[in-house]
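Worked example

This section walks through a single chain of length 100. The input is the sequence exactly as stored; nothing has been trimmed or padded.
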Amino acid sequence: MLRVCHCLRLSTPSLTFTCLDFALLPSVCSYACGLGMSPDGSYVISGDGEGYLVIYDWKSTKRFAKIRAHDQVCMDVVWHPYETSKVITAGWDGLIKLWD
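Given that input, the structure is written out below as tokens.
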């Protein structure tokens, strides 16, 4: 089991940590970065230390897709709340990408 911690920096100096245990994330190559869920609750997404965007089916807990998103670490992933076919990734390569 892999413990995934997603941090959000608030406007205050404090940090908020949300940690979830997912048995389904060991298929992430090195470590999971960021964590998001599709607006309909069907899929979970994460970035990883090798630059991939990884998409999991929530119900079956199986990996649905693995996409090479960045040349370096894919640090964060966000599912667009209204245009549900779109995902945004941010990487250490200095790029923010919109995936459709």
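What to look for: The two ends are 30 Å apart (CA to CA).
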